Structure formats: structure tokens, C-alpha cells
Amino acid sequence: PAQADVRGGQFQLTAASRILAVSNLKNEAQLLAARLRPATGFPLQVKSGKLKISDGDIVLTPNGADASLGAEGYELSVTTNRAVIRATTAAGMFYGMESLLQLLPQEIFSNQPASGIAWTMPCAEISDAPRFAWRGFMLDVSRHFFTVAEVKQVLDLMALYKLNTFHWHLVDDQGWRIQIKKYPKLTEVGAWRDDIGFGLASNSATAYDKHGRYGGFYTQRDIREVVAYAAARHITVVPEIEMPGHSSAALTAYPQFVCAHAKIVMPGKGGVFTGVYCAGNDATFVFLGNVLKEVAGLFPGKYIHIGGDEVDKSNWKNCAECQARIKAEGLKDEKELQAYFIRRIEKIVEARGKNLIGWSEIREGGLAPSAALMDWIGGGAESAASGHDVVMTPTKYCYFDYYQSTNHAAEPKAIGGFLPLESVYQLEPMPEKLAPEFQAHVLGGQANLWTEYVPNLRQVEYMMFPRLGALSEVDWSRPTARDWEDFKTRTALNEKRLDAMGVNYRPLSKPE
Ligand code: ACM
Ligand code: ZN
């Protein structure tokens, strides 16, 4: 926290403790009760209205809250007879609750009754607010599919670390994971592949259908359920619909949107790898417009991520329609054709009341006027300096698909790289030379978990932890408060909480 003074004395939670909350904080109060009940076994009634506070009560209130702490700030005051969280918003209240849980013995995080525990908290005065508004984690559900229950577990773990943005990578070459009612083949065809691929053992995952095909998808009802679950935890879901590259799954289902001469074969079915939409065909934009219309209706957040990375432009070079587009629009080359593509999509996204965000490469050939950039290989500082919003997710600090050790033999197979805990902790989202007047354009930092080699939830957890704690601290705290040795001490303590929850992680004691 920004400020934490631990005082003498203790607060004791008991079977008679109640959670008192004003009525518009009922959701938070119920969540807190649900978090405290399994381990304590206490009934912990939730009450609102005019009530006399009794010893041992937890109080959630906006009264007297410090508005200068912003939209996500809170104060937590623990004295011997009560614990009070003050916040002007439900989000701030939620983060105060997370901090309150951390003051209790680690057994509080268990789903099972824990006997013989004194449920005490040290008396403390805490005042806290995050540094960045975008505290993100990306999960790739295309390379490997994760169920709604598994995604909810990821959201719970993000919430524990006060992250607030879930970037859901729903589309890539290896699988289309979101039901689109107008185009049923996207999921009938695009959500499945012949086998798990990537040279992995077939039993490393369970996402098979009755024909033995690997994959899966979310119905629109599933999507709404996940969005609501996230919202209750103050997490915004940012859907990613990849284009114009990384689109083999969509184009296997609807090959009419590939450049005319090109053949499309889904990865895992052998053959060429040409998953790029034709930029010369107007029907491509009608199709994507219809897809984005349904997507915009499912996700209440401000942003739609349209990918834009690693576009193989060789088809465009050899396509008469793409070349005709370049000529008709007065474009210089295929890079400018990509910029044309993104600008046209930007208009579609804006017409749905949303903002477009895309990977570093959408700068090639000129960044679309109101686009936000997700910087993985550069361009963040330059984009912010020209007035675009930016999310920092540089590979060197943020790629959770990288190995956590140089001793690969002792690790689950990963894509490569080396990203130990300390490197994540060294991330500084604010570019060094960015002038003060542009700094507000840097929304925050995000970790990305690509899942080519991550076929199940246990391994997702292993790649997330303990690194997610470092990312959280970077996004939440002031740079001056960062202290690696202290962070390691707290990471070791945190292992006990993860143990209590049954979450898999890479132990701090394991050599890197
Ligand atoms: C990326 O890692 N291709 C954004
Ligand atoms: Zn074309």
C-alpha cells in the first residue's frame, strides 16, 4: 500500500462479527462474506441500514472517504473493536477488502474450514491508491482452450492482486473461441483442430470433443457470464479479435476472405500458413464489421483489441485486388495497406462506440487517428508523445510465456526466452524521456501469457506465479516504494496464501 502504519493491538473476527455496508455496497459486502466464510465457518451476516456497530464488526462505508484517493483508492482502519474500509467507489471498497484479507492469517484463503486459528488482524491504518488505471493480464485461449470455470479462476487470481483489466485473446491462427451468431462456421470449424499440436502430449489437456478433435469455444451466454463475473471483481474484459494476420482459424471457416490466389489451411491440419484477410476485398470489411458488431454488444468496456501484429504481407503483394486497393487509395506499399486496413476497422469500432487498441505494428504506415497502442516491441513512447493512449507490455519484462529459469530441463517446456521474477519487478511502464504533459497517455502495464506450450490451468498458474505479484506491484505502487528484497520476503509469505488456495506456482526457493 501507499501508506501502512501498523499499530499495537489486534482486531478479532468472531462468529458474531457482521459486515455492515450501505446498500449500494451490498455486492462488495456479500463477496467479502463469501471470502471469509469457508475458512472461518462464521456466518458473517451482511447488514445495511442504520445500525449500531458492535465489537468485531467490519464496516464498509463511503462516509468520510478521502476523494483525493481517486476512483480506485481506499482507506482501511483496523482498531481493536472494528475494521472499517472507506472508499468513494465500489472498486476502492473491493481493493480495501483484498487488503483486509491479507491482514488475516493465510489460512483465510483456504476453501476448507481451518480449525484452531485465531482470526486476528493487527491494528493498522492503511491509505492506498493505484499508480496506473490499466493493470492488465492477457490470456491466450486460442493456442489452448480454457473453460469458463478456468477463466473465472484466472479472474479471481487477478482480483487478488488488484489487477483490473483482462485481455482475452480470443482469436488466433489455431482457434476461434467466441460464438458469432451471423457466422456459425467460425466456431463450428474454426474452434477445432485435429490434435493438440505444438508437439505436446495429447493428455496434457482435456479440451477434446467426442470426435477427438481439440478445441472449444465460448457461447455468447458464456461470454456474458464471464464479463459479469469479472465486473463483480472490478475487472474490465478487453476482447481481442485478431486481424488482418493471425487469422487462419477464421479464414479456414470463411476462405472467401483470403486473397484470391492463396490457399488457406488451418495449422494442425498441415499445409501452408497464410492466415491474412484480403485487404482488397470489400466483403472482408463487411464480414469483420458484422463480427465486431456482435463483439461490441457483448463487452461493455471502452476498448476492442484488433491485434494487428506480425502480418505476413506476401499474399497482399501477389493479390490483384490488394494491389488495386493500393493504387486506388494512393498508398505507397503493403505497410500503408495495413494502415488503411486498421483505419477502416477503426471507423467500424468507433461507430459501435468503442476505441480501437492494437499491437505495436499498427503504427506501420501511420497509426490510426484515435487508436491506442499496446507496445510489445516498441512504439509506446513515440505514440504517447503524439497523443495516443498506450499500454506497456514489453517482451523483456512482460512475456509470461518465457522460461522462469535458464535450466530448461527443470521447467515445463516453454516457448523460449528468460523472464525471472526480478525482471518483471524491474518493469517501468512510464517511458524514461516522455514529457510530463504526455504521461497521462501511458495507461499502465500488462503481462501476456501466450499459451502455445501452456495446455492446462496448472501450467497457467505456474507461469503466472509469482510473476503476477511483481507486475501488480509495478502497476500499483510508486516507483520510490519499490524494494526488491522486501518484495521477495512478501513473495515468500504469499506462497503460503497460494498454498492455502491450492494454486500452483514456481517456488522462490527453486534456482533460476
Ligand atoms: C505478439 O506477441 N505477437 C503481440
Ligand atoms: Zn488480397
Question: Quick summary of this structure?
Answer:
The chain has helices spanning 26-40, 90-103, 148-160, 185-188, 220-232, 248-253, 282-298, 314-317, 320-328, 334-351, 380-385, 395-398, 421-425, 457-464, 467-476, 484-501, and strands at residues 3-12, 19-21, 46-47, 57-61, 74-78, 82-86, 120-128, 134-140, 165-169, 171-172, 175-176, 192-193, 214-215, 236-243, 303-307, 355-359, 372-375, 390-392, 442-449. It is an alpha/beta fold and 512 residues long. The strands form 4 sheets. An 8-stranded parallel β-barrel has the order 8-9-14-15-16-17-18-19, surrounded by 5 helices. The chain has a 7-stranded mixed β-sheet with strand order 1-7-5-6-4-2-3.
Q: Would you write up a description of this structure?
A:
- Helices cover 32% and strands 18% of the residues.
- The mean pLDDT is 95.
- The protein has helices at residues 26-40, 90-103, 148-160, 185-188, 220-232, 248-253, 282-298, 314-317, 320-328, 334-351, 380-385, 395-398, 421-425, 457-464, 467-476, 484-501, and strands at 3-12, 19-21, 46-47, 57-61, 74-78, 82-86, 120-128, 134-140, 165-169, 171-172, 175-176, 192-193, 214-215, 236-243, 303-307, 355-359, 372-375, 390-392, 442-449.
- With 512 residues, the chain is an alpha/beta fold.
- Strand 17 (372-375), helix 11 and strand 18 (390-392) form a beta-alpha-beta unit.
- The two termini are 28 Å apart.
- An eight-stranded parallel β-barrel has the order 8-9-14-15-16-17-18-19, surrounded by five helices.
- The longest helix has 18 residues, at 334-351.
- It has 16 helices and 19 strands.
- Acetamide (ACM) is lined by residues 309-310, 359, 376.
